[in-house]
Structure formats: C-alpha cells, structure tokens
Amino acid sequence: MSGFGGVLPWARRTLVERDKILTSEEFSAILGICQIVPGPNIVNLAVCIGSRFGGARGAIASVLGLTLGPISIVMVLALLYEHYRYLNSVQGVLRGISAVGVGLIASTGFKMLKDEFRYPAMLIVVIVTILAASYFHLGLGWVVLISSPLALVLAWKKAHTE
Amino acid sequence: MSILISLFLKLSAFSLIAFGGVNALLPVLFNLAVNQEHWVDVQTFSDYFAIAQAAPGPNFMTVTLLGWHIYGVIGALVATFAIAWPSSILIFYLQRLIMGIKDPLKKKSIQYAAAALAIGLVLSSAWQISLQINQSVAAYILTMTTVAITFFTRWHPLYLIVIGAALGLSGVV
C-alpha cells in the first residue's frame, strides 16, 4: 500500500532490511528469476517469496495481500475520474503525471543500461531489440525470436569473462 | 458477457508474453486496447496510465483500470486476475527449475540474457508510449527532465509525480 512509484524498492526494504526474511543475495537471485519470466514482475516476486514459505497457498496469499489494497484505491480513483474528467484542471494534472510516468519507465531502462557498459558487447542486444521493436515495428514474438539467441550467446561469453 | 470473456482471454495471452514486466509492453497493451479491441480511446488510455502511476501499488494497475472501464468492478477484478494467473503459474514451476540449475555460469548467462532483452524492451516501450501520450513539446521536455533527474539524483519518484501534476494543473504542460 505504501508502494508509490512501484513496489520493488519497498519490498526490498521490508523483506531484507527490516524483517530479515531473506538475505540480500537471495532477494537479488529471486528477483533475477522473476525478471526472466514474463508477467508483472511484482506478482512474480510475490509468487516466488510466498511459495517459499507456504507453497501454493503462500503464493496466493502474498499475491492477494499485494494487490487487493491497491485495487480498491485505484477503483475509488477511477470513480472520481469518471465524475471529474471533464474538468480542465483534472486533464492538466493527468497530462503532467503521464509525461513524468513515461520518464520514470525510461529511467528504469537507462539505469539498467548503465550496468551493461561493464560488458559493452551486450549493448548490441539492447540496440537490436530497440531497432526491431521501435524502428521495424515487429511483433513481440519476432523481437524475442531475433534477440534472444544473440542475447544467450553474448551472455554465455559475458559469464565466462567474470 | 462476451466482452468480459474477450477481456479475460486477451489479457491472459498478454500475461504470457509480457517479458520485462507490463511497463515494458505498454505499446502492445496500447495497441490491443485502443487499436484492436477499441476498449478505450487514446485519451482515456493515457489518463488511466497516469492514474496507475500516481496511485500507490503495482504499476500494472493500468490493466485494472481498463477492466473497470469495460465492466465496472467485475471487469477490474477479471482484468487483474487475467494479467496475473498465467505468469504466476509459470513462475511457480519455473523458479524451482531455475534455482535447481547447478552450473553457476548457466544460471548467470540466462539472467544476463534476460536483463539485456528487458532493457531493450523497456526503452522501446518508453519511446513508443511517449509518442502516443505526450501531446506537446513541453510534455516531452518534462519527460526528458524526469529521466535526467532520476538518473543523476536519488529523488523519490513521488516528488516528480507531484511536480508533474502541478505543472499540468498550472497549464505549463
């Protein structure tokens, strides 16, 4: 519920630093796996951590715990939006927030990109993916089909250089 | 009723291709919701995106709001469930498989490959969605300023969202 601007940093602080349920390495390893698999990252994370402590039931409980509160809040906001969307001020506020929101997504990408400079060959994968998706407008299936063999080969080399 | 089933099926399929999370695939969601299925228009989509960014909780609430638009509370629940269940089941089984890989080099390779792919998808997503959502030069400047500030400082994203809201309210953006 206090997950303004995404839940991940908050999840890390609570699980690793405050409650010490997981070590920092365990958290990173689990997060790494969750980012490989498709789907909402945070839901995947909840499934992984929940199932570690309570199997399938734990997974379901942690997903519900994570989503029910925010869903209720977002529906109240949706109701307010429905009533006041015609107001210029409301439209202005949402315009401003969405411009910032796009920037936040881009900066997540750029921050992750920073780490790739340690093994610059990996940047080829990033560039190929961007070109395939944004310049050639290929469907996601094609993008993944083209990029992932290249990504795996380079990642294999990167892992060996360390 | 048939629109609910279509919502459920389309979003379930979307869940299984959402590499890099929902935000990495906003353009695909946009295309699905606006161009293919005509669930919402461009303006409503970008407003829902804004509400999901500003609200506390996971960022994929854009999907919940689309569901709400189509079929009220039930639509919202169906949409959220649809986006979550296929990938949840997948990861429930895959995590043990991946954790079980003994060779650390193999494990690392898979993670590095996935990370590089995710970065490409996230950056493409931001690029394509900004072309749909930003309607003015000022909006693009705000987007780029946000990137610069989050890249070089450790400001909490909430401050930036508040600043964005204030700029929008005052008519600058």
Report on the architecture of this protein.
- The complex is a heterodimer of chains A (162) and B (173).
- Chain A has 162 residues and is mostly helical.
- Chain A has helices spanning 8-18, 24-36, 41-84, 88-116, 123-135, 140-161.
- Chain B is mainly alpha-helical.
- Chain B has helices at residues 2-17, 26-36, 42-54, 61-99, 104-133, 137-152, 157-169.
- In chain B, helix 1 crosses helix 4 and helix 3 (42-54) crosses helix 4 (61-99).
- The radius of gyration of chain B is 18 Å and the shape is globular.
- Chain B has a domain at 2-102.
- At the A-B interface, helix 2, helix 3, helix 4, helix 5 and helix 6 of A face helix 1, helix 2, helix 3, helix 4 and helix 5 of B.
**Distance N to C terminus of chain B:** 40 Å
Shape of chain B: globular
Q: Provide the helix percentage of chain B.
A: over 70%
Share in β-strands of chain A:
under 5%
The major sheet of chain A is characterized as:
none
Looking at how many chains there are and whether they match, the oligomeric state comes to heterodimer
What is the count of β-strands of chain B?
0
- Write down the overall mean pLDDT of chain A: 87
Report the radius of gyration of chain B as a whole number of Å.
18 Å
Helical percentage of chain A: over 70%
Instruction: Write down the overall mean pLDDT of chain B.
Output: 92
Outline of the structure:
The complex is a heterodimer of chains A (162) and B (173). Chain A has 162 residues and is mainly alpha-helical.
Write the layout of secondary structure elements.
The complex is a heterodimer of chains A (162) and B (173).
Chain A (H helix, E strand, L loop, with lengths): L7 H11 L5 H13 L4 H44 L3 H29 L6 H13 L4 H22 L1
Chain B lengths: L1 H16 L8 H11 L5 H13 L6 H39 L4 H30 L3 H16 L4 H13 L4
Helix pairs in contact in B: 1-4, 3-4
